């Protein structure tokens, strides 16, 4: 596994979303590394996860990644940096990957930050390894009750054939990028930058579909109900997140009434990419406060400063029901 280990200070593990590639989160990784120690990686079944093509400008790095992805579909690669994904463990293989990253980096305890689908991985890790978690941050995360909506089920039927349709549909996120960038030209430049990361670090529609199907046979609501770590639920503006509705992420409050809620203004699902410095400020402030005070307070709502105002207290929630939506 190729572990990206940057910066120094409070350790934060950043878990990618369903596309599986840490490179898509590069702006957030760089912003976090300026404030803390950040560990990240591509998900365990990504073909290029063991390689060190660490920058998109490295000569032919993107081309080699594509070639290896094609080779991996014909059979497993072997070598000192390649590890085979154990399909029998399914989703829990990603959870185990977080532990492996901590062990390999010599980190005993860290804030675990999961993005979208990665929020489920982060939450499951906190449930199974509470002694390794100083705090938990879920960013525009899918709730454990999530099931695919009609559009997601449409893509799942033939993920590779429908990739062009998926890419065209993703253009709906330009409004979020332009809003966060404060201007048409800056928005266009930011969109081109993100598109370049996507093109040079390809996602696999087949792997994305498999990751969705992995959730079908496990009881995540019961698993995650055990989490009692200091928790922050971070979302963008409800009008701009076109992937995971903020109400879906806030469903975690039914299980974790101690969690804090914060909003990354002027952005939606891509906040860690479109406003990485503000994203890093919020996450690191929370992580540092949790690391300092977790032994002194029992509720994260009583903790430190430096975060945007939380929402007003929430009323009691009804029992958790299945949530439908897109996937990120």
Describe this structure in words.
It is a single chain. By secondary structure, this protein is an alpha/beta fold. It has a single domain (4-325), classed as Alpha/Beta hydrolase fold, catalytic domain (Rossmann fold), CATH 3.40.50.1820. 41% of the residues lie in helices and 12% in strands. α3 (91-105) crosses α4 (117-128) and α7 (174-181) packs across α8 (184-200). The chain is globular, with a radius of gyration of 19 Å. It starts with a strand and ends with a strand. Mean pLDDT is 76; it is low at 50-83, 297-306 and 308-324.
List keywords for this structure.
Rossmann fold, 7-stranded mixed β-sheet, two-stranded parallel ribbon, 41% helix, globular
**How would you sum up the global shape?**
globular
Residue windows where pLDDT falls under 50 for at least 5 positions: 50-83, 297-306, 308-324
The radius of gyration over CA amounts to 19 Å
β-strand amount: 5-15%
CATH architecture: 3-Layer(aba) Sandwich
Number of alpha- plus pi-helical segments: 14
Structural class: alpha/beta
Question: What do the pLDDT scores average to?
Answer: 76
CATH topology: Rossmann fold
Number of domains: 1
Number of strands: 9
Through-space gap between termini: 23 Å
Explain the layout of strands and helices.
Elements: E1 4-7, E2 11-15, H1 26-33, E3 37-40, H2 61-74, H3 91-105, E4 110-115, H4 117-128, E5 133-139, E6 146-148, H5 150-157, H6 163-169, H7 174-181, H8 184-200, H9 205-214, H10 220-224, E7 231-235, H11 246-249, H12 252-255, E8 260-263, H13 271-274, H14 276-293, E9 323-325
Parallel strand pairs: 2-3, 2-4, 4-5, 5-7, 6-9, 7-8
Antiparallel strand pairs: 1-3
Helix pairs in contact: 1-14, 3-4, 7-8
């Amino acid at each position: 596994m190729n572990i990206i280990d940057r910066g120094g200070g409070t350790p934060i593990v950043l878990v990618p979303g369903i596309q599986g590639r840490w490179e898509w989160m590069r702006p957030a990784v760089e912003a976090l590394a300026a404030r803390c120690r950040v560990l990240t990686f591509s998900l365990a079944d990504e073909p290029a996860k063991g390689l060190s093509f660490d920058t998109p400008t490295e000569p032919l790095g993107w081309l080699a990644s594509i070639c290896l992805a094609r080779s991996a579909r014909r059979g497993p690669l072997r070598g000192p940096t390649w590890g085979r994904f154990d399909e029998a463990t399914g989703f829990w293989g990603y959870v185990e990957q977080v532990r492996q990253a901590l062990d390999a980096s010599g980190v005993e305890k860290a804030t675990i930050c999961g993005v979208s689908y990665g929020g489920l991985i982060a939450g499951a890790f906190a449930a199974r390894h509470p002694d390794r978690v100083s705090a938990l941050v879920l960013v525009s995360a899918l709730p454990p009750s999530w099931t695919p909506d009609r559009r997601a089920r449409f893509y799942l039927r033939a993920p590779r054939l429908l990739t062009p349709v998926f890419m065209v549909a993703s253009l709906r996120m330009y409004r979020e990028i332009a809003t966060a960038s404060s201007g048409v030209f800056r928005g266009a430049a930011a969109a081109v930058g993100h598109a370049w990361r996507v093109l040079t670090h390809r996602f696999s529609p087949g792997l994305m579909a498999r990751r969705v199907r992995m959730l079908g046979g496990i009881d995540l609501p019961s698993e995650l109900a055990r989490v009692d770590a200091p928790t922050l639920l971070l979302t963008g503006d409800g009008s701009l997140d076109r992937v995971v509705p903020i109400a879906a992420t806030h469903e975690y409050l039914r299980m974790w009434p101690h969690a804090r809620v914060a909003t990354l203004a002027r952005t939606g699902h891509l906040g860690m990419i479109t406003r990485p410095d503000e994203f890093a400020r919020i996450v690191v402030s929370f992580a540092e406060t949790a690391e300092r005070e977790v032994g002194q307070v029992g509720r994260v709502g009583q903790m430190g400063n430096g975060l945007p105002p939380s929402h007003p207290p929430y009323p009691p929630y009804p029992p958790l029901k299945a949530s439908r939506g897109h996937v990120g």
